[in-house]
């Protein structure tokens, strides 16, 4: 499970909930996976689980919007969670600004005081490449029906 590193339990600042890397903490997929590998678990016994949902926060100041920026609570929807299909709709409906944060291999979008951290096709592809480079057995997505394309054609 390579996600839920940040969320509604910490409403004081935004966070990359599915960070591949985190230069400031152990809350990242690389730390998690390398811990298993260094403990002797073979890569062909590990599968990387990736999320198809984002975590939301309400920004304290709409002019400050980076990862780790001050927040005053969770954003809209179900306890600060948006399915990826809802993230796509949020971005369209609000003409949200989308920013890639390379330090964590994540993406976030924001509009006014709403901030959403999530993975998109590019960051997901990068994480899949990472899983392959580590020689993991594979990867899967939680959950497929959260994806944008699955809702468009439903």
From TrEMBL:
Protein name listed in UniProt: Putative chitinase 3
A Pfam family reported for this protein in Swiss-Prot or TrEMBL: Glyco_hydro_18
UniProt cross-references to SUPFAM superfamilies, sorted A to Z: (Trans)glycosidases, Chitinase insertion domain
Source organism per UniProt: Morella rubra (Chinese bayberry)
Domain GH18: residue ranges: 1-154
This protein's record includes keyword Glycoprotein: yes
Classification via InterPro entries: Chitinase_insertion_sf, GH, Glyco_hydro18_cat, Glycosyl_Hydrlase_18
Entry keywords, A to Z: Glycoprotein, Glycosidase, Hydrolase, Signal
Family per similarity comment: Belongs to the glycosyl hydrolase 18 family. Chitinase class V subfamily.
GO cellular component: extracellular region
């Amino acid at each position: 499970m390579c996600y839920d590193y940040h969320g509604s339990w910490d409403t004081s600042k935004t966070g990359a909930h599915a960070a591949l890397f985190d230069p400031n903490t152990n809350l990242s997929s690389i730390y998690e996976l390398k811990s298993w590998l260094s403990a002797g678990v073979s890569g062909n016994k590990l599968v990387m689980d990736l999320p198809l949902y984002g975590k939301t926060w309400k920004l304290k100041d709409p002019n400050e919007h980076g990862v780790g920026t001050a927040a005053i609570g969770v954003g809209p929807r179900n306890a600060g969670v948006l399915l990826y299909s809802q993230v796509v709709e949020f971005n369209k409906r609000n003409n949200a600004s989308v920013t890639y944060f390379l330090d964590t291999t994540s993406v976030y979008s924001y509009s006014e005081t709403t901030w959403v951290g999530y993975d998109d096709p590019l960051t997901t592809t990068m994480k899949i490449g990472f899983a392959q480079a580590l020689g993991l057995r594979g990867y899967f997505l939680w959950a497929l029906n959260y994806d944008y394309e699955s809702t468009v054609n439903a």
